[in-house]
Amino acid sequence: MAVIPYSRVVDVTLSRNDAFPSRRGFGTQLIITTETVADKVDTTHRTKLYGSIEEVAADWATSTSAYKAALSAFSQKRRPRQIKIGHVADDGTMVSAELQAQLDLLYAADSDWYFLTIAANLRDVAALPGLLSWIQAKPKLALIDSNDIDTENPASTTESLASANKGNFDRASVFYHTSAAAYPAASLAAYMQTRSFDEADSAYTAKFKELPGIPAVNIGSAALTAVTGFTPGVGQSEAVGHMANTYIDIGSRNFVVEGSTLTANVFLDEIHATDWIIARTEEESLGILLNNPRVKFDDSGMQMLAGAVRTVMQQATRAGIVAQDINPETGDYEAAVTVTVPSVFDVPESQRKARIAPVIECRFRYAGAVHYTVVRYQMAF
Fold first, then answer.
1. Are strands 235-236 and 246-250 parallel, antiparallel or unpaired?
2. pTM score > 0.90 for this model?
3. Coil, helix or strand for 116?
4. What residues make up the domain containing 118?
5. I need a surface site. Which of 52, 162, 232, 238 has the fewest CB within 10 A?
6. Domain assignment present for 345
Protein backbone atom coordinates (compact mmCIF):
# COMPACT_ATOMS: atom_id res chain seq x y z
CA MET A 1 0.00 0.00 0.00
CA ALA A 2 1.40 3.41 -0.94
CA VAL A 3 2.38 5.70 1.96
CA ILE A 4 1.80 9.35 1.16
CA PRO A 5 4.50 11.66 2.62
CA TYR A 6 3.67 14.30 5.23
CA SER A 7 4.75 17.00 2.81
CA ARG A 8 1.40 16.64 1.08
CA VAL A 9 -0.21 18.38 4.04
CA VAL A 10 2.55 19.95 6.12
CA ASP A 11 6.01 21.22 5.26
CA VAL A 12 8.37 21.29 8.24
CA THR A 13 12.01 22.31 8.11
CA LEU A 14 14.47 23.21 10.83
CA SER A 15 17.51 25.39 10.33
CA ARG A 16 20.25 25.73 12.94
CA ASN A 17 21.84 28.99 13.86
CA ASP A 18 25.40 27.72 13.82
CA ALA A 19 27.31 30.51 12.11
CA PHE A 20 28.55 32.06 15.33
CA PRO A 21 32.02 33.58 15.63
CA SER A 22 34.41 31.92 18.05
CA ARG A 23 34.47 33.38 21.54
CA ARG A 24 37.72 35.01 22.54
CA GLY A 25 39.30 33.81 25.75
CA PHE A 26 40.64 35.87 28.63
CA GLY A 27 42.00 33.03 30.72
CA THR A 28 45.57 32.52 29.51
CA GLN A 29 48.75 34.10 30.81
CA LEU A 30 51.81 34.28 28.57
CA ILE A 31 55.18 34.39 30.33
CA ILE A 32 57.88 35.67 27.99
CA THR A 33 61.54 34.79 28.46
CA THR A 34 64.81 35.03 26.58
CA GLU A 35 65.55 31.43 27.52
CA THR A 36 64.96 28.59 25.06
CA VAL A 37 64.30 24.87 25.02
CA ALA A 38 65.26 23.42 21.66
CA ASP A 39 62.27 22.32 19.55
CA LYS A 40 59.93 23.29 22.42
CA VAL A 41 60.13 27.06 22.89
CA ASP A 42 62.59 28.88 20.65
CA THR A 43 62.71 31.14 17.60
CA THR A 44 60.94 28.45 15.56
CA HIS A 45 58.39 27.47 18.21
CA ARG A 46 57.53 30.83 19.77
CA THR A 47 55.09 29.63 22.45
CA LYS A 48 53.98 26.45 24.15
CA LEU A 49 50.93 25.77 26.32
CA TYR A 50 51.25 24.06 29.71
CA GLY A 51 48.43 22.69 31.86
CA SER A 52 50.42 22.01 35.04
CA ILE A 53 53.76 22.68 36.66
CA GLU A 54 54.67 19.04 35.96
CA GLU A 55 54.32 19.74 32.23
CA VAL A 56 56.52 22.81 32.63
CA ALA A 57 59.14 20.76 34.49
CA ALA A 58 59.25 18.29 31.63
CA ASP A 59 60.69 21.03 29.39
CA TRP A 60 62.27 23.59 31.69
CA ALA A 61 64.93 23.11 34.33
CA THR A 62 63.87 24.23 37.78
CA SER A 63 66.74 26.75 37.75
CA THR A 64 65.28 28.69 34.78
CA SER A 65 63.33 31.87 35.35
CA ALA A 66 60.57 30.57 33.06
CA TYR A 67 60.01 27.62 35.41
CA LYS A 68 60.08 29.85 38.49
CA ALA A 69 57.51 32.24 37.01
CA ALA A 70 55.29 29.32 36.02
CA LEU A 71 55.61 27.84 39.50
CA SER A 72 54.43 31.11 41.00
CA ALA A 73 51.43 31.08 38.66
CA PHE A 74 50.46 27.48 39.40
CA SER A 75 50.87 28.05 43.15
CA GLN A 76 47.66 30.04 43.33
CA LYS A 77 44.98 28.57 45.60
CA ARG A 78 42.66 28.60 42.62
CA ARG A 79 45.01 27.36 39.95
CA PRO A 80 44.75 28.52 36.35
CA ARG A 81 43.82 25.88 33.81
CA GLN A 82 46.79 26.71 31.65
CA ILE A 83 49.61 29.13 30.94
CA LYS A 84 51.90 29.69 28.00
CA ILE A 85 55.62 30.33 27.90
CA GLY A 86 56.94 32.35 24.98
CA HIS A 87 60.38 33.23 23.66
CA VAL A 88 61.85 36.57 22.63
CA ALA A 89 65.41 36.56 21.36
CA ASP A 90 67.98 38.86 22.98
CA ASP A 91 71.55 39.33 21.79
CA GLY A 92 72.49 41.03 25.05
CA THR A 93 72.09 44.57 23.71
CA MET A 94 68.36 44.56 22.98
CA VAL A 95 66.66 47.95 22.65
CA SER A 96 62.97 48.81 22.61
CA ALA A 97 62.55 48.50 18.85
CA GLU A 98 64.19 45.06 18.86
CA LEU A 99 61.95 43.85 21.67
CA GLN A 100 58.90 45.10 19.77
CA ALA A 101 60.07 43.22 16.67
CA GLN A 102 60.41 40.06 18.73
CA LEU A 103 56.94 40.57 20.20
CA ASP A 104 55.54 41.04 16.69
CA LEU A 105 57.01 37.68 15.67
CA LEU A 106 55.59 36.02 18.77
CA TYR A 107 52.16 37.62 18.23
CA ALA A 108 52.10 36.52 14.59
CA ALA A 109 52.79 32.97 15.71
CA ASP A 110 50.32 32.96 18.63
CA SER A 111 47.95 35.72 19.72
CA ASP A 112 45.67 33.45 21.76
CA TRP A 113 46.48 34.79 25.24
CA TYR A 114 45.46 37.82 27.29
CA PHE A 115 47.81 38.46 30.23
CA LEU A 116 51.49 39.10 29.51
CA THR A 117 54.14 38.72 32.21
CA ILE A 118 57.92 38.50 32.06
CA ALA A 119 60.56 36.14 33.40
CA ALA A 120 63.32 37.53 35.61
CA ASN A 121 65.79 37.81 32.74
CA LEU A 122 63.68 40.63 31.27
CA ARG A 123 63.21 42.64 34.46
CA ASP A 124 64.35 46.25 34.38
CA VAL A 125 66.17 45.88 31.06
CA ALA A 126 66.62 48.92 28.83
CA ALA A 127 64.23 47.54 26.19
CA LEU A 128 61.18 47.25 28.48
CA PRO A 129 59.61 50.61 27.52
CA GLY A 130 59.14 49.07 24.09
CA LEU A 131 56.89 46.43 25.64
CA LEU A 132 54.73 49.13 27.22
CA SER A 133 54.01 50.92 23.96
CA TRP A 134 53.59 47.60 22.13
CA ILE A 135 50.99 46.25 24.59
CA GLN A 136 49.12 49.58 24.55
CA ALA A 137 48.20 48.94 20.91
CA LYS A 138 46.85 45.44 21.60
CA PRO A 139 43.69 44.15 23.35
CA LYS A 140 45.96 42.62 25.99
CA LEU A 141 47.08 43.41 29.54
CA ALA A 142 50.68 43.36 30.82
CA LEU A 143 51.87 42.88 34.41
CA ILE A 144 55.59 43.54 34.68
CA ASP A 145 57.82 42.71 37.64
CA SER A 146 60.45 45.24 38.72
CA ASN A 147 63.15 45.21 41.39
CA ASP A 148 64.36 48.75 40.71
CA ILE A 149 64.93 50.42 44.09
CA ASP A 150 64.29 53.84 42.53
CA THR A 151 60.60 52.92 42.52
CA GLU A 152 60.70 53.78 46.24
CA ASN A 153 62.05 57.27 45.53
CA PRO A 154 59.26 59.86 45.14
CA ALA A 155 61.68 62.25 43.41
CA SER A 156 62.55 59.70 40.70
CA THR A 157 61.38 60.75 37.25
CA THR A 158 63.21 58.53 34.77
CA GLU A 159 65.25 56.12 36.87
CA SER A 160 62.73 53.25 37.15
CA LEU A 161 60.28 51.72 34.69
CA ALA A 162 57.30 52.96 36.70
CA SER A 163 58.57 56.49 37.36
CA ALA A 164 59.54 57.02 33.71
CA ASN A 165 56.25 55.78 32.28
CA LYS A 166 53.52 56.59 34.81
CA GLY A 167 50.54 58.36 33.33
CA ASN A 168 51.27 57.17 29.80
CA PHE A 169 49.89 53.63 29.71
CA ASP A 170 46.69 51.99 30.94
CA ARG A 171 47.29 48.49 29.53
CA ALA A 172 50.40 47.86 31.55
CA SER A 173 51.14 47.68 35.25
CA VAL A 174 54.39 47.45 37.17
CA PHE A 175 54.64 45.17 40.19
CA TYR A 176 57.49 46.31 42.43
CA HIS A 177 59.15 43.90 44.82
CA THR A 178 62.43 44.04 46.69
CA SER A 179 63.16 40.33 46.15
CA ALA A 180 64.56 39.23 42.81
CA ALA A 181 63.43 35.69 43.66
CA ALA A 182 59.74 36.66 43.83
CA TYR A 183 57.34 36.57 40.87
CA PRO A 184 54.33 38.57 42.09
CA ALA A 185 53.16 39.63 38.62
CA ALA A 186 52.87 36.04 37.39
CA SER A 187 51.07 35.13 40.61
CA LEU A 188 48.57 38.00 40.37
CA ALA A 189 47.97 37.37 36.67
CA ALA A 190 47.23 33.73 37.53
CA TYR A 191 44.53 34.87 39.95
CA MET A 192 43.07 37.27 37.39
CA GLN A 193 42.95 34.65 34.66
CA THR A 194 40.66 32.49 36.81
CA ARG A 195 38.06 35.29 36.92
CA SER A 196 35.84 34.51 33.94
CA PHE A 197 33.21 37.19 33.37
CA ASP A 198 31.15 34.60 31.50
CA GLU A 199 30.40 33.19 34.96
CA ALA A 200 28.18 34.64 37.67
CA ASP A 201 29.71 36.83 40.40
CA SER A 202 33.14 36.79 38.78
CA ALA A 203 33.95 40.53 38.98
CA TYR A 204 36.90 41.33 41.22
CA THR A 205 39.54 43.84 42.24
CA ALA A 206 43.23 43.01 42.25
CA LYS A 207 43.78 44.87 45.51
CA PHE A 208 43.71 42.86 48.77
CA LYS A 209 44.58 39.61 47.00
CA GLU A 210 46.88 37.11 48.68
CA LEU A 211 49.69 35.70 46.55
CA PRO A 212 50.83 32.33 47.96
CA GLY A 213 54.58 32.01 48.25
CA ILE A 214 55.24 35.74 47.82
CA PRO A 215 56.72 37.54 50.86
CA ALA A 216 55.57 41.03 51.77
CA VAL A 217 57.98 43.86 51.03
CA ASN A 218 59.73 45.43 54.01
CA ILE A 219 59.12 49.11 53.31
CA GLY A 220 57.55 51.92 55.33
CA SER A 221 54.59 54.18 54.61
CA ALA A 222 56.60 56.88 52.83
CA ALA A 223 58.18 54.39 50.43
CA LEU A 224 54.80 52.69 49.93
CA THR A 225 53.26 56.00 48.88
CA ALA A 226 56.14 56.58 46.48
CA VAL A 227 55.66 53.14 44.94
CA THR A 228 51.87 53.24 44.54
CA GLY A 229 51.04 56.95 44.45
CA PHE A 230 48.17 56.22 46.83
CA THR A 231 47.24 58.61 49.62
CA PRO A 232 44.63 57.30 52.10
CA GLY A 233 41.32 59.09 51.64
CA VAL A 234 42.50 60.75 48.42
CA GLY A 235 43.43 58.06 45.91
CA GLN A 236 46.33 57.82 43.49
CA SER A 237 48.31 60.78 42.20
CA GLU A 238 51.31 60.92 39.90
CA ALA A 239 52.60 63.84 41.94
CA VAL A 240 53.27 61.67 44.98
CA GLY A 241 54.15 58.27 43.51
CA HIS A 242 54.72 56.00 40.55
CA MET A 243 51.48 54.01 40.07
CA ALA A 244 53.22 50.68 40.71
CA ASN A 245 51.78 47.75 42.63
CA THR A 246 53.43 45.98 45.52
CA TYR A 247 52.73 43.42 48.25
CA ILE A 248 52.41 44.49 51.89
CA ASP A 249 51.53 43.25 55.35
CA ILE A 250 48.69 44.89 57.30
CA GLY A 251 47.16 43.12 60.26
CA SER A 252 49.49 40.14 59.75
CA ARG A 253 47.89 39.53 56.37
CA ASN A 254 49.79 39.91 53.12
CA PHE A 255 47.96 41.41 50.16
CA VAL A 256 48.34 43.36 46.91
CA VAL A 257 48.14 47.14 46.70
CA GLU A 258 46.84 49.03 44.65
CA GLY A 259 45.88 46.78 41.73
CA SER A 260 46.33 49.63 39.26
CA THR A 261 47.76 50.27 35.82
CA LEU A 262 50.43 52.92 35.20
CA THR A 263 47.67 55.52 34.96
CA ALA A 264 46.38 56.97 38.21
CA ASN A 265 43.09 55.49 39.42
CA VAL A 266 42.75 53.22 36.39
CA PHE A 267 42.66 49.69 37.70
CA LEU A 268 43.48 46.31 36.20
CA ASP A 269 39.95 44.98 36.62
CA GLU A 270 38.55 47.93 34.64
CA ILE A 271 40.70 47.18 31.59
CA HIS A 272 39.93 43.46 31.89
CA ALA A 273 36.18 44.14 32.05
CA THR A 274 36.33 46.67 29.20
CA ASP A 275 38.06 44.22 26.88
CA TRP A 276 35.58 41.49 27.76
CA ILE A 277 32.57 43.72 27.04
CA ILE A 278 34.00 44.83 23.68
CA ALA A 279 34.86 41.26 22.64
CA ARG A 280 31.49 39.80 23.60
CA THR A 281 29.59 42.66 21.91
CA GLU A 282 31.56 42.17 18.69
CA GLU A 283 30.83 38.45 18.79
CA GLU A 284 27.11 38.85 19.54
CA SER A 285 26.71 41.51 16.84
CA LEU A 286 28.47 39.44 14.21
CA GLY A 287 26.35 36.43 15.21
CA ILE A 288 23.17 38.42 14.52
CA LEU A 289 24.44 39.46 11.08
CA LEU A 290 25.56 35.92 10.21
CA ASN A 291 22.47 34.04 11.37
CA ASN A 292 19.75 36.11 9.76
CA PRO A 293 18.92 36.38 6.06
CA ARG A 294 19.22 40.12 6.62
CA VAL A 295 18.80 42.72 9.32
CA LYS A 296 16.26 45.15 7.93
CA PHE A 297 17.21 48.81 7.82
CA ASP A 298 14.21 49.87 9.83
CA ASP A 299 13.43 50.33 13.50
CA SER A 300 12.84 46.61 14.01
CA GLY A 301 16.28 45.89 12.57
CA MET A 302 17.86 48.41 14.93
CA GLN A 303 16.21 46.63 17.83
CA MET A 304 17.71 43.34 16.61
CA LEU A 305 21.17 44.90 16.65
CA ALA A 306 20.52 46.40 20.07
CA GLY A 307 19.76 42.87 21.23
CA ALA A 308 23.50 42.16 21.14
CA VAL A 309 24.14 45.03 23.55
CA ARG A 310 21.33 43.97 25.87
CA THR A 311 22.59 40.38 25.91
CA VAL A 312 26.11 41.44 26.85
CA MET A 313 24.84 43.82 29.52
CA GLN A 314 22.77 41.01 31.03
CA GLN A 315 25.90 38.86 31.17
CA ALA A 316 27.89 41.76 32.65
CA THR A 317 25.22 42.30 35.30
CA ARG A 318 25.30 38.60 36.16
CA ALA A 319 29.10 38.75 36.46
CA GLY A 320 28.87 41.73 38.82
CA ILE A 321 30.45 44.24 36.44
CA VAL A 322 27.38 46.49 36.27
CA ALA A 323 26.29 48.39 39.36
CA GLN A 324 22.87 47.66 40.86
CA ASP A 325 21.01 50.88 41.72
CA ILE A 326 17.69 51.33 43.50
CA ASN A 327 14.80 52.29 41.25
CA PRO A 328 13.12 55.22 43.08
CA GLU A 329 9.71 54.18 41.71
CA THR A 330 9.78 50.51 42.68
CA GLY A 331 12.39 50.47 45.45
CA ASP A 332 14.03 47.46 43.79
CA TYR A 333 17.66 47.10 42.77
CA GLU A 334 18.09 47.26 39.01
CA ALA A 335 21.08 47.19 36.69
CA ALA A 336 22.32 50.71 35.98
CA VAL A 337 22.09 50.33 32.20
CA THR A 338 20.48 52.55 29.57
CA VAL A 339 20.41 51.49 25.92
CA THR A 340 19.44 54.15 23.37
CA VAL A 341 18.36 52.83 19.99
CA PRO A 342 18.06 55.61 17.38
CA SER A 343 15.46 55.72 14.66
CA VAL A 344 16.68 54.98 11.17
CA PHE A 345 15.42 58.44 10.25
CA ASP A 346 18.05 59.94 12.56
CA VAL A 347 20.62 59.30 9.82
CA PRO A 348 20.64 60.82 6.32
CA GLU A 349 19.28 58.90 3.34
CA SER A 350 22.80 58.60 1.91
CA GLN A 351 23.88 56.65 4.99
CA ARG A 352 20.85 54.37 4.73
CA LYS A 353 21.71 53.84 1.07
CA ALA A 354 25.23 52.85 2.11
CA ARG A 355 23.70 50.45 4.69
CA ILE A 356 25.55 51.98 7.63
CA ALA A 357 23.42 51.66 10.76
CA PRO A 358 23.12 54.57 13.21
CA VAL A 359 25.06 54.43 16.47
CA ILE A 360 23.48 52.44 19.30
CA GLU A 361 24.50 53.93 22.63
CA CYS A 362 24.75 52.13 25.93
CA ARG A 363 25.48 53.85 29.22
CA PHE A 364 26.11 51.84 32.35
CA ARG A 365 27.72 52.38 35.72
CA TYR A 366 30.69 50.19 36.50
CA ALA A 367 30.33 48.51 39.89
CA GLY A 368 34.03 48.96 40.65
CA ALA A 369 35.31 48.20 44.14
CA VAL A 370 35.99 49.91 47.45
CA HIS A 371 39.71 50.35 48.16
CA TYR A 372 39.49 52.61 51.21
CA THR A 373 36.82 53.19 53.81
CA VAL A 374 36.24 55.62 56.67
CA VAL A 375 34.25 54.92 59.84
CA ARG A 376 33.54 57.57 62.47
CA TYR A 377 32.01 56.85 65.85
CA GLN A 378 30.47 59.36 68.19
CA MET A 379 29.81 58.24 71.72
CA ALA A 380 27.34 60.27 73.78
CA PHE A 381 26.68 60.26 77.52
1. unpaired
2. yes
3. strand
4. 29-270
5. 232
6. no
Beta-carbon contacts of 240 under 8 Å, excluding residues fewer than 6 positions away, are 154, 225, 226, 229, 231
pLDDT digits (tens, 9 = 90+) for 164-201: 999 999 999 999 999 999 999 999 999 999 999 999 99
Are β-strands 115-118 and 29-33 bridged in parallel, bridged antiparallel, or unpaired? Answer: parallel
CA-based nearest residue to 156, from 181, 174, 182: 174
pLDDT in tens, 277-331: 999 999 999 999 999 999 999 999 999 999 999 999 999 999 999 999 887 777 7
On whether residue 315 sits in a domain, the answer given is: no
Beta strands 361-364; 337-340: pairing state: antiparallel
**CA angle (192 as vertex; 160, 27 as ends), nearest 5:** 115
Residue 90 resides in a domain: yes
| Backbone Cα Rg of the chain | 25
Q: Please indicate, yes or no, if residue 127 is contained in any of the structural domains.
A: yes
Single-letter amino acid, residue 256: V
From start to end of the chain, where are the E strands? Answer: 29-33, 47-50, 83-87, 115-118, 141-146, 172-176, 230-231, 235-236, 246-250, 253-257, 324-326, 333-335, 337-340, 361-364
Q: Please report, for residues 37, 53, 55, 61, 74, the alpha-carbon distance to residue 58 in angstroms, rounded to integers and kept in the order given.
A: 11, 9, 5, 8, 15
Among 220, 267, 264, smallest CA distance to 243 is for 264
Count of domains observed in the chain: 1
What whole-number distance in Å separates Cα of residue 308 and Cα of residue 285?
5
